[in-house]
Amino acid sequence: MSVQLKEKINISVETLDNLSEVDLADLCNITEQAIDAGGGFGWIRVPTREILNQYWIKITKDNLNNLIVGRLNGVIAGTLQLSYEAPNIESRKNIAQIKRHFVTPWARGYGLAKSMIDFSEKKAKEENIKSIQMSVRETQEAAIQLFSGKNFKVWGENPYYAFINGSFIKGIYFYKNL
Description:
alpha+beta; 7 strands; Aminopeptidase; seven-stranded mixed sheet; 178 residues; 30% helix; globular
């Protein structure tokens, strides 16, 4: 006899200003998993847990970064940083950057990445942002498809965007006007 289980999936997205111990552990765990899977978080090798803890705590204290997290059934499974320029950069005060957007491998395919982008766009509009920009390595095909599917436009490429394992990797730059 075979039994099919229907799992209820609950997706939620929020901005985190403070980290509980559980949230910090979730963030570190999913970061390690994403790096191991080649997830483009910027690190090539998984850093120590102490470095990851310091990184995530620092992000929540930086008022130029919004730490947006996606939860799958209450567990943090993805993040995105919506970043702004310093106040003295007046010419870019209405432009935000999406940085370090990833979903841990076990949570992919549920729409969490799209939900975090939608949330970020709404938040940006509320804060009078007129354009969101971001970049991604050419090797991250799912991310390229995701942002293209969310109507982000490619505006340029950099053949020397990243240097990994002795080779340059091209970067692709996107924008979306709100």
